[in-house]
Write a structure and sequence with these properties.
By secondary structure, the chain is α+β, with helices and mostly antiparallel strands. Helix content is about 65%, strand content about 10%. It has helices spanning about 5-30, 40-65, 65-85, 85-90, 100-115, 120-140, 150-225, 230-245, 255-265, 285-310, 345-355, and strands spanning about 255, 275, 285, 315-320, 325-330, 360-365, 370-380. A 5-stranded mixed beta sheet has the order 2-4-5-7-6, with helices on one face. Strands 1-3 form a two-stranded antiparallel ribbon. A hairpin with a 2-residue loop joins β4 and β5 (about 325-330). α1 runs antiparallel to α5, α5 runs parallel beside α7 and α7 (about 150-225) crosses α11 (about 345-355). The longest helix has about 80 residues, at about 150-225. The protein is rod-shaped and about 120 Å long.
């Protein structure tokens, strides 16, 4: 059972018995003054029993009484109320359809359709209709009106129609609730699938970026014409690449951005120096931010070595309020940023997306013949 079905069932379970109390009490209180003065006392006793039972029925429902025993007791009391029509309905009552007994019994029959299983509700409606007819027959015999039951048949038939309509309404609303629950569950599954797919794509992008920055970059730098990287440096770098690809490199906590950038420089043939703008000393940051800044800087240095036509760059670390800024400048041949092919992932994935994923931003500015500047920002102190 879904949440909408449960909410609907809980609403009926809570409020139908309360409405029944209101109907029974109202009918019983109004019925007593309508009786002849000589019959008011007896009618008052029956009315008091009806009111008392409705309140007791509500209390037992709230207390979680056994459903079978409660239904049996309820139908027994309703039978007694139907058979009491000779005592509670004036002999001058013009029509059976206007008696308070029929109003109470009709509401009870309708209530069973809304709060009980189909078979229980159907049997209860038929039983109550039969009990009401028996009460009419009994009153007719006592008052010497043997044909009174024939006039009551249309009203008793309408009682059954009301019960059937109530059951139909319940089925329609219940099915709509089930359909709404199914639609909500399907939407939730679709959202979960979308989140899983996006997480997988993000993991793939991260893995590809890491692969691009580690093993691929190391092999490419070692294979460049005129590369003079010592074999022991290649071995150490390859071991470090393997640790990063296996996810075992970065501990938690903070790290010194300046120190990490200086270590990163050892991986590249580009001559550069990390300069601290506005003072000396470490720049401690949240480690994921340091990793993003360090790896983005490494990709910028690889682009200098491969494309700029120079072997020198300038790296500056600065604090601008709460923003940490790293700039990588070179005086190489430059390029048109808008003309970079989509399949070239160095700028888009290894720099821009990496910084965005860490909560920062990256900006690449360059013009042919005027060099390139990569500006990395992380807006947290």
């Amino acid at each position: 059972m879904g949440p909408t079905e449960r909410e609907f069932a809980e609403f009926l379970r809570r409020y139908v018995p309360r409405f029944r109390v209101v109907i029974v009490c109202s009918c019983a209180v109004l019925a007593v003054p309508a009786m002849p003065v000589a019959d008011m006392a007896v009618a008052g006793v029956v009315a008091a029993v009806a009111i008392g039972w409705s309140l007791l029925h509500l209390a037992w429902l709230r207390a979680g009484a056994r459903p079978g025993a409660l239904v049996a007791a309820d139908l027994a009391v309703m039978t007694g109320l139907c058979l009491s029509q000779v005592l509670t309905v004036p002999a001058t009552q013009p029509s059976h359809g206007s008696t308070w007994i029929l109003v109470v019994v009709s509401f009870v029959a309708v209530g069973y359709q809304l709060t009980h299983p189909t078979l229980t509700g159907a049997l209860a409606a038929v039983y109550l209709a039969t009990a009401d007819l028996a009460g009419v027959v009994l009153a007719g015999v006592v008052r010497e009106r043997p044909d009174a039951w024939a006039a009551a048949l249309p009203n008793i038939g309408w009682l059954l129609v009301q019960a059937a309509l109530s059951r139909g309404l319940y089925v329609v609303v219940h099915r709509r609730g089930r359909a709404a629950d199914a639609a909500a569950a399907e939407a939730a599954r679709a959202r979960r699938a979308a989140r899983v797919a996006e997480t997988r794509r993000a993991a793939e992008r991260t893995h590809l970026a890491t692969l691009h920055d580690t093993a691929c970059a190391t092999l490419l730098m070692a294979s460049l014409p005129g590369a003079s990287i010592p074999p022991d440096v290649v071995r150490r770098q390859s071991a470090r690449d393997l640790r990063r690809l296996s996810g075992g490199e970065e501990p938690a906590g903070q790290a010194d951005l300046v120190e990490e950038l200086r270590l990163e420089l050892l991986r590249h043939p580009v001559r550069a120096e990390v300069r601290r703008d506005g003072g000396d000393g470490p720049v401690p940051l949240w480690r994921p931010a340091v990793v993003a800044l360090r790896d983005s800087c490494g990709e910028a240095l690889r682009n200098v070595a491969r494309h700029a036509g120079v072997d020198e760059a300038r790296i500056t670390v600065a604090r601008r309020g709460d923003v940490t800024v790293v700039t990588i400048d070179d005086r190489g041949r430059g390029f048109d940023v808008a003309a970079v092919p989509e399949h070239r992932h160095g700028l888009s994935r290894s720099i821009v997306e990496r910084m965005r994923a860490a909560g920062g931003r990256a900006e690449v500015t360059s013009r042919p013949g005027l060099g390139t500047r990569v500006r990395l920002e992380w807006p947290r102190a």
